[in-house]
Amino acid sequence: MAKVSVPVSNEFCPQCLYLYGTYKENGEPNYGVFCWATYCWDEGLKFVACIGENKLTRDRIRATGIFSVSVVNEALLPAADYCGNHPGYDFDKSKEIPSVKGAVLDVPVPVSSPWTFELEVDKTLRLDERNESEIYICKIRNVLTEEGLTDGRSFEERLKEAAPVIALSTKYFPVKPEALGDWGQWKDKH
Questions:
Q1: Which candidate, 44, 19, 58, places its Cα nearest to that of 138?
Q2: What pLDDT does 23 receive?
Q3: CATH number for the domain that contains residue 98
Q4: Global pTM value
Q5: Of 9, 67, 115, 121, whose CA is between 20 and 30 Å from 138?
Q6: Is there a domain that residue 164 lies in?
């Protein structure tokens, strides 16, 4: 099949959906939905988060240097979508997502998320002169997960229970817990 050039986009690039959690100055939880994230190795595994435009979540990360990053699952998706479409400056989102405090850092953790990182900003890379977009390279200070996801079941069974959501184009999709193979499985077949 022939390849053709198209406008720049990430339409067919799956992105994990995350809730970034901070506390507002009044102590109430604030969440924003983000998917511009990845990992890097810098003296250990680190989380890399990109935030563009003015957002209360970014303001609070700048002020405190800490935040939580929680995997959005199918149960959490309606509240996460609400948070992602209502600016924290204008809406009180604290009651949308039941939360507990982090175990190591003073960050909110959504009760319904299957996996949460408690993060401390290690390095900040500003991407524009207006300071509207920046990348945070973060130390993972703690990982919180549902106890049931640590048992001896197969990864596929635990993935089905966790039910993370990914974003493609402008849509949400479930993760189908059927493995295509393991890393290195085909290394000698070509």
A1: 44
A2: 96
A3: 2.30.110.10
A4: 0.92
A5: 9
A6: yes
